[in-house]
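Re: the 160-residue chain
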Amino acid sequence: MNNFNKYFKLVTLLFGGFISFLGFIIVLFYLLKLCSITLFNIPGFNSFFELVIIIIPYIIFFLGYYYLQNKIPLSKSKITAVIARVLIVVGSLLCFATLILSTLRLFRVHKSFLLTFDHYSQYAWIAQIVILFFTALTIASGDAKEKDWMQKNSEKDFVH
């Protein structure tokens, strides 16, 4: 087998893989559209879908706070651990409060503060992301300095 045949086979496989991937995406979108049309004809599914769409981001934020909470004991500095715990508590309270307000808005409670929250709800999500980022930054700043590759290799050579 010469080089031309090898490269032709390789290019053919790459092109076939790309076309197959596009075909898979098209079939997947078609099936999802078919499922959504079918499911939205079920009475009450629209409300259930809206509830799931509202809850999913808050579950992701709570999982982020839980993950960072488990990383706090690995921090060497007590000050960074305390700051990280305070940020996690503030972030969790903000997440819980905005979840309640979003759920009240979903159930169409007519209060003026919910209308205000509806206009500014994106800022609560931005605040959550910023709190998660600064919590991770705080935890990372309390870790011991990582050794570079030369120090690791010299220690490995020293042990042997």
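DSSP finds five helices and no strands in the chain.
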